[in-house]
């Protein structure tokens, strides 16, 4: 990892991606209710440290959706970021599929450890588990991983580390960029998700070569698509007039 570099992807690029209608969730899923979420939270956190630490590497950095107490930089040991989950809902449709960020085995990943504020555990865990896991079919995608912080080695709860029960896409970074540049669905576009993620990392002084390469490629693909779709320039002048 190195110092943050300029971000090419911009709000202007995001605005060029056409919106799309589609399902917010897979209609085949069985959604988790409050009782399910509370039972899942109990199993995940029983005997674990307090306050409960969450390792954020993507959207949880810029939109945690739970009450955060302390926060600190952390490096996930043995994991790296990967846009590997294929989406035909949420930020994608069957016609314009998207990708969701996950953790994949190998390497390391700099992110944030967000402690759930003490006294808010029940509602905060409900909120983060409802948002991240959504349905019974995805409920296995929460686990504890080792994270290196200023305190030394500690464990933190994270989501989608080697995802299970999700449709995966093994794509080159160039193909990932092409997907993200055109993907959109009920929750917005892939480009918007990537832009908010790269900005969230930069604001916290975190650089990931893979994410920076991806945002550069997505910006270039959006620009190229706009050029391809631009109407041809029409010649102007006196053509078609008759002389007297």
From TrEMBL:
GO terms for molecular function: glutathione specific gamma-glutamylcyclotransferase activity. Keywords: Lyase. It is an enzyme of class 4 (lyase). Its EC number is 4.3.2.7. GO terms for cellular component: cytoplasm. The keyword Metal-binding does not apply. GO terms for biological process: glutathione catabolic process. The keyword RNA-binding does not apply. This is glutathione-specific gamma-glutamylcyclotransferase. It comes from Paracoccus thiocyanatus.
